[in-house]
Amino acid sequence: MSPNEWVQEFPAAITVCDKNGIILELNNRAQETFAADGGTELIGTNVLDCHPEPARSTLQSMLASGKKNVYTIQKAGVRKLIYQAPWYRDGVYAGFAELSLPIPESMLHFDRDVKTG
Length: 117
Hints:
The chain is an alpha+beta fold. 18% of the residues lie in helices and 35% in strands. It has one domain (5-103): 2-Layer Sandwich (Beta-Lactamase). A hairpin with a 2-residue loop joins β3 (69-75) and β4 (78-89). The mean pLDDT is 92.
């Protein structure tokens, strides 16, 4: 298996851009998610062009500051956790990766801080 092969069929959309917002990679799920917007043709374009306000300004701020952004949404009846975080190359800020993870309406939560027994 190549080093990043597992990413392609991972059951969440993964989008990676450089520090200027240029889309570098889309896994299979991201290509499907953004098919109506161009799918793989989005690679090499700017992620800012894909977002209206206020999301565009939020992304600009994230790209400039390198701070992560985490939230949930519901779209087409599917709840998702959106996790946008900086990635680094040799310790230097290189851009952002976004994971869009489908989440069920209800799910278990385990508090690992609580001591049992």
